[in-house]
User: What shape does this take?
Amino acid sequence: MARYLGRRLASMLFLLWGITVMTFGVMQLAPGGPIDLATEMSARTSPEIKDKLKVLYGLDQPWYIQYGRWMKRIARLDFGTSFKDERPVIDKIVERVPNTLLLNLCTMILIFLLAIPIGAVSAIKQNSLVDRGLAVLVFIGFSMPTFWFGLLMMMFFGILLGWLPVSGLHSLNYTDLGFGGRIWDTAQHLILPSLTAAFTGLAFLSRYTRVMLLEVIRQDYVRSARAKGLSSQRVFWRHAFRNTLIPMVTLMGLMLPDLIGGAFIFETIFAYPGLGRLGMDAMMARDYPVVMGLGTIVAFLTLLGNFLADVGVAVVDPRVRLAK
Assistant: This one.
């Protein structure tokens, strides 16, 4: 087990280094720059002032020197300061992490609560009208553009019906509310972005659950359980369904990158104060330190999620660690 975890940790660190190289390279190749964007609106900005700003931020150095300095700072958990407001990047990211984790946690809970029953019903009613109807429903969610579905939800539930808020995490009177009122206010702001993310992410997990259940049902030990006279429901839920839960642990880790990547869309549409919106604002402002720091931390969280998923699978299924 220790050897397996050591290999997985080494692989994770190598991937993280590769991601820092890619992130730095993409920002170097991006058109325009932070100095150009900050000075183009000012007619008084002379070329000498631009050169001084480049020296101030170290942008006059070759790319490998800039990368080396950046990596040294990362080793000390110092991601530099934002070009936009001079605040430490790590402070800006840390204050947004809880919001993004809260949104992703709600989304994952919704996906598992909806996708697993849909997959189970589809497997029980295989090739029936119910099975085909559920397949059409989940594939509509899979193929529907996220931003378009989010806008539909905002227009229907937020504007036409007026049931739910359409932006932000808190209302303007949030500080005046009591404890229960604050929880309810936050929950209301999470419903629309969580539902949007969950509906578009149902297809993969529900169809995977269906396929796994159909495969397990055909196993010899399930036929043996039926031959002993156990009821169909007991065979399904106690012997077939429980064995499909092991791959779900892996899927929880694999779904995390999609949710974090999709957060750029959800959080921008719903003006949600999370990492996705912070990254979008930083990219529009060519705020290099924030974009690179955010990319590195999101990549680390993604790799950590996959690592924990692998550890979980190795713990619950000894065949995995023995095979490694």
